[in-house]
Amino acid sequence: MINAKRWKEKTQQLKLDTYALYLACKHPGVPWYAKLLVALVVGYALSPIDFIPDFIPILGYLDDLIIIPAGIALSLKMIPKEVWAECRGKARLEFSSGKQKNWVASFIIILVWLLVVFSVVLFLRAR
Q: What residue numbers bound the domain in which 79 lies?
């Protein structure tokens, strides 16, 4: 039986680490190749598009449970420890104050979905 409280804590930690990675991606002390990997991991975590769609039972969420934590773990090996500690501290502070909302990222995700829907409609009308 899965402990709901532990599951919620793990989920919150994953959100915190993802946001800390976003902050690390903007930090000048992180090498370019680490920034590239971090951008891919954060982009995948925030993207509505998955390798395996979420509507497929179990497998749909399994890719998120494997790919995102593996990407975070690999990213952490590339980020200097002092930079990671700083970014994680900032993420905790912003999460506790509720300032972590990024309207630009939300806008981009909504825009991507609108483009996908528009493309599907155009495709169906052409047939």
A: 4-100
